[in-house]
Amino acid sequence: MTEFRPFIEELFSGLGIRATDLPNLSDSELARTFMDKLNKFMYQRDEELGSDYISRFHKFWEEHHSEILELTIDDAQCLKVAQTLEPIYAEPGRFSQYIIKPPISRGSISNAAVANVRFFTAIQDFKINIHKGGRNPFEQYQITPQWFTASEILRHPSLINDFLEYLEATGSQGDKRYKWMLAAAEFLVNEHQGDAYRIFDTYRGDAGTIRSQLASPGYLGYSYKKADMFLRDMAEWGIWHYSENAHLVDVASDTNTMRIALRTSVLCIKFPLIASYLDVYCYQYSAVDNETAKAWRRTWELWSNIPGNHRPPTPASMDYLLYYSIGKGVCRPTPKCEACLFNDVCPDETRHLNPPKSISQKGATGWDSGATNRGGGGGIMS
Q1: Cross-strand pairs, 206
Q2: What is the Cα–Cα distance from 304 to 324, expressed in whole angstroms?
Q3: Helix, strand or coil for residue 126?
Q4: What is this structure's pTM?
Q5: In a domain, 242, yes or no
Q6: Given a cut of 60, is residue 381 above it in pLDDT?
Q7: Same domain, yes or no, for 271 and 300?
C-alpha cells in the first residue's frame, strides 16, 4: 500500500497538519480506519437524519455546496467574450466557419404558422433531433398543417401519433410526448384562441411572463430550457419583438456551454469541479447549470456597452454558436485552442477545466437507491 500513505500525508499537509503527527499505524490499519470513517460520513444513513438524506455528507453537501464552490461571474471576461463575438454577429458572411443559427429555413409560411410549428416542435425537442436527416417541420406544415393546429389536434387526437412517428419520437417517452401535445393544444384553444402566435399579445410582449407561463405549469411539456429555445426562435425569425424581459431568455445550459463558460472564465470556480461520484445528489450540477445561464446572460447584457453593437435579440441567441460551432467543433474535452474563437480570451490556467456531469436523478438508478445503513454495502447500481 505504498501509494496510500503518501496520499494521507498530502491530505494532512493540505490541511496544515504535519505528516509526523499521523498515528503510528501500519498502512493497512491506516487505510482501514480512513475507509471506515469516510464510508460512514459519505454513504451511510444515520438514523437521526431521517429518510430525506442518505448520509451526513448528503445533508452537509446540500447545505454548504454553494459556499464551497463559490461560483462567481467575471464581468471583465464577459465583456471580452462579447467583444470577440461582436464582429461575427456584425458581419456573419465574413465568418462562415461559425454558424450562429440552426441551418433551417422557415420557407414562405406565415408568421402565425411559424409560431404554431415551433410551439409544438419545441415541446418535443428532448433527446431527439427535430431536424434529423434534413427534416424540416416548416416544409412539413405545407403538407400536413393539421399536425400543428390546436383545434384539429383536439378533434382528432390520432394526429399526435402521426406527428410523433414523423419525428421518430414514439419510443423516447412516447406516452409523455402524447400528453404534452394534447395539453398544449388545450392550452392554446382555452387561453389563446387556438393560436400560438397570439401568446405574444396575451402577455403584452413580456418575454419573462411568456417564459414562466409556458414552463411553470409543467403539464405542457415545456421546461424553462425548451421555453427559452421557443422564445429565442420567435425573436431570431422576427416573429416577435419583446417589449421587456428579453434578458431572461437564457442560453440553454448543457455540457458544451458549461465547458466554454468555465474555460473562458465568464464563470469562475475556486477549484476544479468534483466528479459526479461525489455529487450524486446533483447539487454541484444544478449550481453550475444555473450560474452558467447567468454568466451568458451577463455577457449579453455587457455586450450593449460596445458602441454600435450588433447584439442579438436575446441571450439564448448565442447558444447555437456556443453549443455547435465552438463546443462541438473545437472546445472539446481535449480542446483545439489554436483553432478556437476564444483562444485569446481563455486564461491559461482554466483551459483544461471540464463541466460537471449529472450522475442520475432521485427515483432513477442513482442516489435514492444507493442508500444504506450501518450494515454497510449498498451503492449505485447500473
Answers
A1: 244
A2: 24
A3: coil
A4: 0.88
A5: no
A6: no
A7: yes
Q: Per residue in 153-185, pLDDT tens?
A: 999 999 999 999 999 999 868 899 999 999 999
135: domain CATH number is 1.10.340
Cβ neighbours of 303 (radius 10 Å): 22
pLDDT by residue (tens digit) across 254-295? 899 999 999 999 999 999 999 888 887 889 999 999 999 999
> What radius of gyration do the chain's Cα atoms show?
25
Say whether both 279 and 222 belong to one domain: no
37, part of any domain: no
Listed residue (55, 26, 104, 91) closest to 278, CA to CA = 55
Range of the domain at 17: 1-30
Q: Is residue 35 part of a domain?
A: no
Closest CA to 292 of 326, 251, 351: 251
CA distance 111 to 106: 9
Residues 322 and 367 in one domain: yes
User: Considering 171, 203, 236, which residue would you say is the last residue of a domain?
Assistant: 236
Strands (E), the chain: 72-73, 267-268
